[in-house]
Amino acid sequence: MRTNTITQPTLVLDEHRCLANILRMRDKAKQQNVQLRPHFKTHQSLTVGNWFREAGTDRITVSSVGMAFYFAEDGWDDITIAFPVNVLQVDEIAELAAKVKLGLVLVDDSPIDALGKKLEHEVSIWIKIDVGTHRTGLAPDQTNEIDKILDQLKKYPELHFAGFIGHAGHSYQAKSVTEVQRTYDVSLSILLDLKKKYLNTYPGIQISLGDTPASSMVSNFGPIDELRPGNYVFYDLMQEEIGSCSMNDIAVAMACPVVAVHPDRKQWIIYGGGIHFSKDFLLLADGRKCFGRMVNQNAAGWSVDNVQQNPMLISLSQEHGIVQCDDHNFNQCKPGDLTFWLPVHSCLTADVMGAYVTTHDLAIDHYRQRLNR
Amino acid sequence: MRTNTITQPTLVLDEHRCLANILRMRDKAKQQNVQLRPHFKTHQSLTVGNWFREAGTDRITVSSVGMAFYFAEDGWDDITIAFPVNVLQVDEIAELAAKVKLGLVLVDDSPIDALGKKLEHEVSIWIKIDVGTHRTGLAPDQTNEIDKILDQLKKYPELHFAGFIGHAGHSYQAKSVTEVQRTYDVSLSILLDLKKKYLNTYPGIQISLGDTPASSMVSNFGPIDELRPGNYVFYDLMQEEIGSCSMNDIAVAMACPVVAVHPDRKQWIIYGGGIHFSKDFLLLADGRKCFGRMVNQNAAGWSVDNVQQNPMLISLSQEHGIVQCDDHNFNQCKPGDLTFWLPVHSCLTADVMGAYVTTHDLAIDHYRQRLNR
């Protein structure tokens, strides 16, 4: 790639690594006969979306109504918004339902009347079940609440009950493949029990799960109908720590100029701060924070050889990044050099950057570039 | 204000509070005969910039070359980029120097030849001194390095030495007005010593400091030439904790719909996550994290009455915010209600939101809306 055109913090996307991630997950799901509905909130890019399309993806997940419009306008016609229905957006939801096969998520019955009265086209309604993350969703034993939702749905023929949806976000706290497997097994068993309970009354209902750690690490998905992982398109240091990927699978890196060096404390200052990386960090065993790990730039993009021996990004302010070196690697860079950094949380880094340059030197789109989000 | 048009996370800007902040700092600086060069990286808005202009501001600080262009195109003609010169952007810097009276910051002599050979118009060169923050800048006793920079500058008549610049970022760790005052006094004395040392050789050189805690809390600025605070235009919970402002001075709030409630754990889930607030947080004395504090919506915008008794934002994921309530306030909201939140770090919240709606219902600009940053 040509890096001499990069003069300020830039998010570089490695097409080869990204495509390998897309294909690996596709093949794994296909092999196990599980529908994949990848979450597009990580990349938020029509171009990357097209790479999925070329790999056979025909249904997607997004996290907002605006993002659903963004992809709908590019021809995606089967979209689930994996976020509790925000009743204030019912007009936009109705507009969207006229364009695409739309999936919506309910956590209670409160938006049903507003939806039912507004919608003129059928939508799929997923009931969100809390499989252990304790963020949103009904507890598996709240069948009274589930029945209340199902009763309300009967009033509106456009609101088609599609099944139960879960997100095992607590797999991000897992420390081993065994723990991720256990989280997945529990989540699956919760959704399976509900499916069995309601299948006679609602034939054809499905169950859907979708975190990247489980989708990457679990070897047997079992009788799940649909998986919705998203982060795997890029992966990041957080996923590497969990064990979802290797350093070499991470498909995005921030390119940042060095603007100062401090021999006394063996630090570099890079142009690249919280507005470029986001402020998510890994807390290391030694108590330090890691905001990014340096990789070695090469003709194709970057290599992860000896990444553990490279300097580490230990602090971010708005535009500055502080890099801790040691005696061995401090002299690798001087002001004016470009450095490459694997991000801690690629979803947020891509979101704050709002643009990519590929390792083939193409500037590509991100949803944030749309002014009216 | 009309809140019925707000359907998704929206950054609301209170014009009255904002203008009061602008005027209070202007009057304080004027009274003490100190030049104010407000930092525009917090608001990044031409509209807010105009409020400064109407209040008499004629010189500004920004944090990037792109941001300097943004404001230059709106007629600002005296701009300091308070970030170490990134030599990779020397072409853009030269272009900018042709348009405005430009101030640049050097932390070493490495960019001087590139600048000197490229620039066709005079720029002001500030030497950055580390007044104790240990992020960038020369230590006050590195006079050899200072002399090396000054010697190099002599080669290029366009590079005019303007003086010494510092940023006491460590005042953000201060716990009391006494600590902030002490930090300010030390910073001022460091810059003053350098000014005295070099004033004979470089008559007219100035010294410039600029953090919001000191600018807000220090009663006597002493013989400083220029102050460059930025955050005070909005303030935020971090500044309130330091003591720079009261809750009622904070001029921005995130408006977020409630999308779920959990009576069992007395929590609400709001539509509003890391991509809306940013991930900065306050670590409270009880070990909890605070990502935002709820204020009470009213006809004019919001009131901070009883803010300490209101629910608190304790966790953020990409789009979800988890709000902790207690028995007393849990029933205040239901799904579909709009809630208002004071942000922890307004610079980053404004940056990730990239747009404002004022309490007078005007949608106004932010630099992020420019596609080609």
Attribute tags:
TIM Barrel, 8-stranded parallel β-sheet, elongated, Lyase, Ornithine Decarboxylase, Chain A, domain 1, 6-stranded antiparallel β-barrel, homodimer, 373 residues, alpha/beta
List the helices and strands and how they pair.
The structure is a homodimer.
Chain A: E1 10-13, H1 15-31, E2 35-36, H2 46-54, E3 60-62, H3 65-72, E4 78-84, H4 90-97, E5 101-106, H5 112-118, E6 123-128, H6 143-153, E7 159-165, H7 177-199, E8 206-209, H8 212-217, E9 226-227, H9 237-242, E10 252-262, E11 267-271, H10 274-277, E12 282-283, E13 289-290, E14 292-298, E15 301-303, E16 312-316, E17 320-324, E18 338-343, H11 346-353, E19 356-358, E20 363-364
Parallel strand pairs in A: 1-19, 2-9, 3-4, 4-5, 5-6, 6-7, 7-8, 8-9
Antiparallel strand pairs in A: 1-10, 10-11, 10-18, 11-17, 12-13, 14-15, 14-16, 14-18, 16-17, 19-20
Description of the structure:
2 copies of one chain form a homodimer. Chain A is of the alpha/beta class and 373 residues long. The first copy, chain A, has 2 domains: 77-229, TIM Barrel, CATH 3.20.20.10; 246-369, Beta Barrel (Lyase, Ornithine Decarboxylase, Chain A, domain 1), CATH 2.40.37. Chain A is built from 11 helices and 20 strands. The first copy, chain A, has helices spanning 15-31, 46-54, 65-72, 90-97, 112-118, 143-153, 177-199, 212-217, 237-242, 274-277, 346-353; strands at 10-13, 35-36, 60-62, 78-84, 101-106, 123-128, 159-165, 206-209, 226-227, 252-262, 267-271, 282-283, 289-290, 292-298, 301-303, 312-316, 320-324, 338-343, 356-358, 363-364. An 8-stranded parallel sheet of chain A has the order 2-9-8-7-6-5-4-3. In chain A, strands 10-11-17-16-14-18 form a 6-stranded antiparallel β-barrel. In chain A, strand 8, helix 8 and strand 9 (226-227) form a beta-alpha-beta unit. Chains A and B meet through strand 10 and helix 11 of A and strand 10 and helix 11 of B.
